[in-house]
Amino acid sequence: MTVDPFLGTRAQRLFIATISIQAIAVLAIISIVFHLVSEHVDLSQANYKTIPCYLALFVLAEVFELLMAFDALRLRNVIQLAGILVFHVALVVFAAIQVHETKAALVRKPDCDGTNDYVLCGGRGTLYRKVEHLLITVPCIIAAAWLVMIFFVRALYYEFGWAIFRIVGANPAMKTMYQYYQVLLCLLKFDFFAFTGVTIQLLIVVLNRSSAEFGLTIAAIPVVLLLLLVCGIAVKREIKWCVRQYNGLSFSDVPFLWRLMSFSLFLMLASETYLTQLLYIYKLVRFYEPSSEEQYETTRATLTVFTIVAILLLLATFAVGLKCFLDFDRGLYDSKTSGQLFPRYTLLLKPRRGPNSPGEKPDSFGQPLEPRISIE
């Protein structure tokens, strides 16, 4: 059975088309909301910053989701496709939260109509009533697209099954290791989005460049991104620091170096989680401190949800990263680079000789056994 090329099937093309059409529709509606609100209010004021945050985050989210979809189809990564579905549900929740936050930002006099105050009132003929139906439409479009995406992901699941088998074979243990490996790479990508999303919101809300909080936010960007990148490279290539220089030696031959490598990778994962969570927890406290509470008044709900999700993602990344680290040097890297893994114990077998080789019986040779396929 041959593997279909990238975007070579109807399910792949329609999956990308669904995400693209949904992204265009959502960004068009949010841009209209941004334009309508910016005509009447000063978006640089703290209580109106939820609107630019809303637009910036959805631009980032839609571009990120589209790139993740292309990446998942290119890699034939079913786990990443499932992650995209979960991410899409999060977009529905975020869009629903924005209805509440936009109302909190615009409506200061809920009982009056547009004849009294077009901007601050919440009754008929007001600015909020003008954009309310647009805000409600956004989560509805995203939810409808999600239902369509489920159908195509199901088709892609069956389509990509053979491609996964070609990489890891029928070995159940190897299949499990490969699944954890894919989960970790997927989590690292979503870690990147969560961190970038929180950072963009904070940079929009905290525009005082002379403040220590602004400097801390800027300084954290390269550090966290570098840690995420290093973690991804180390797991993808199974980097064994300080061991490659000892040619021909295995981990059992150099236990001290194995421990050194273990400590190095563990420190990398721990520092990524620890440093980033310190930043997130610090920001989470700042959202509710009396001294800065007013600054985050209309963006607090979104920032809180984003920060909590980011913390949970990092904890999951740390746990799965440790599992992947324990799977180092167990054959997965060879499987990924060569396309199909033969179990490690086959390396202990004698080389196969021909039927005329001395000491062998003619009837002892035949066709090699086909690999067993596990049906799950």
From TrEMBL:
Annotated region described as Disordered, given as residue ranges: 352-376
Parts of the chain that traverse the membrane: 14-37, 49-70, 77-97, 134-157, 183-208, 214-235, 256-282, 302-326
Keyword terms, alphabetized: Membrane, Transmembrane, Transmembrane helix
Key word Membrane present: yes
One GO CC annotation: Golgi apparatus
Classification via InterPro entries: UPF0658_Golgi (IPR040410)
Top-rank taxon, per record: Eukaryota
Full protein name: Uncharacterized protein
Protein's organism: Lactarius akahatsu
